[in-house]
Write a structure and sequence with these properties.
Number of helices: 2
Largest sheet: 2 strands, parallel
Shape: flat
Helix content: 25-40%
Radius of gyration: 13 Å
Number of strands: 2
Distance between the termini: 8 Å
Strand order of the largest sheet: 1-2
């Protein structure tokens, strides 16, 4: 079963040092990935959160998530 985590590098709820720990844990796991979006904040996929919403990043994240679901 694939694992795919998507974070922004400006996510105040998930600081980069913690995201890097997840990346390190996933490094030896087949089918596990961490995608980091430069400049994206926590909530980048929420159009109801204008302070964080990033339409372009959300589209990339949705595309990847749907690719993974389509591969199951």
């Amino acid at each position: 079963m694939p694992l795919s985590y998507h974070w922004g590098d400006e996510d105040a709820a998930a600081p980069m040092d913690e995201i890097e720990l997840v990346q390190a844990a996933f490094a030896s796991m087949d089918g596990a990935e961490v995608t980091i979006y430069p400049g994206a904040k926590h909530g980048f996929m929420q159009p109801t959160n204008p302070a964080a919403y990033d339409e372009a990043v959300a589209a990339k994240s949705w595309t990847r998530a749907l690719e993974i679901l389509g591969s199951l």
